[in-house]
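FYI - complex with 2-oxoglutaric acid, inputs then prediction.
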Amino acid sequence: MAPSVSDDSRNVTDFVVKKGNGIKGLAETGLQNVPKQYIQPLEERMDMQNIVTHEFIPIIDMSKGDDLKVGKAICDAAEKWGFFQVINHGVPIEVLENVKEATNRFFGLPAEEKMKYTPKNSGTLNVRYGTSFVPKAESSLEWKDYLSLFYTSEEEASAFWPKECNEQALEYMKASEVTIGRILDALMKGLNVTDIDAKKSSMLMGSKRINFNYYPKCPNPELTVGVGRHSDISTITVLLQDDIGGLYVRGIDGKGWIHVPPVTDSLVINVGDALQIMSNGRYKSIEHRVVANGSKNRISVPIFVNPKPKDMIGPLPEVLEKGEKPIYRTVLYNEYAKHFFNKAHDGKKTIDFALI
Ligand SMILES: O=C(O)CCC(=O)C(=O)O
Ligand SMILES: [Fe+2]
């Protein structure tokens, strides 16, 4: 029988965060109302009046037309929307299905098993099972559990990543390499960068993190959030979502929110802050959020393609060569990442850290 948890702040935090049951464990107790620490202030709740239904982020068929045509569609989407979906992207559908199955397998484990993957217990900071975003820094929690895996080597992944999902995660990361390379190549060509040398390659895709997100069904979805407003700090993010929906991105000029509808066998691609900085603001790292769902559990699996932690990132020389003024300073990527992970989600504010 599911344990009962009274709506006492300490009890809830203890059960969800400390005992590792996650919000999934809490949702499965059959509670009728979200506990008070999950109630977001009014301004952070999704206002249905604010949803834009006449605009759509582009869907790009990566098999249609030559590289030039696909590349142009990618650059246009990255400039205008910062978000797009790709179909016929080359990642085998079976690999995507396996990752989704592995996600459900991992979150289906008992709390004691999942607890082995908290940073304290896992023996490495590169493996992190957790809930919400940064519970210690948040005044309201997010209705989400996650497993976050920072890739350093196959050996480390085999030794430390949970066996319920390590092979599928590695397979997905490997199978998406060509697609990621094509997208980044196109985006660089759009900035007049034709030679991606070792330094640039490291800045663009020197490290990767894969997250498994689990958003349990929620009794009061309108009061809480799955993920609060934020932009990613990646160069690009490749996101696999299931067929539930709930991801919303900021519309053009910051107006309203546009749904990213699940499209069978697609991947969602978005520009992150690191690429916005390198492109001196040409490619947009757009604010996005996930709503909670009142009737279904949802999963998503983003791969964050990042610079290496020790890379210095700033506007690329090719972007500035015609006299364009840099808007961003050059920052150590690790400092930028620390800044992001030490606070609650706060929309587009993270990038101010790099503003000149
Ligand atoms: O679950 C999603 O659709 C998006 C999750 C997200 O924005 C993130 O993990 O950064
Ligand atoms: Fe995100």
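The mean pLDDT is 94. Residues 230, 232, 288 surround fe (ii) ion (ligand 2) (CB under 6 Å).
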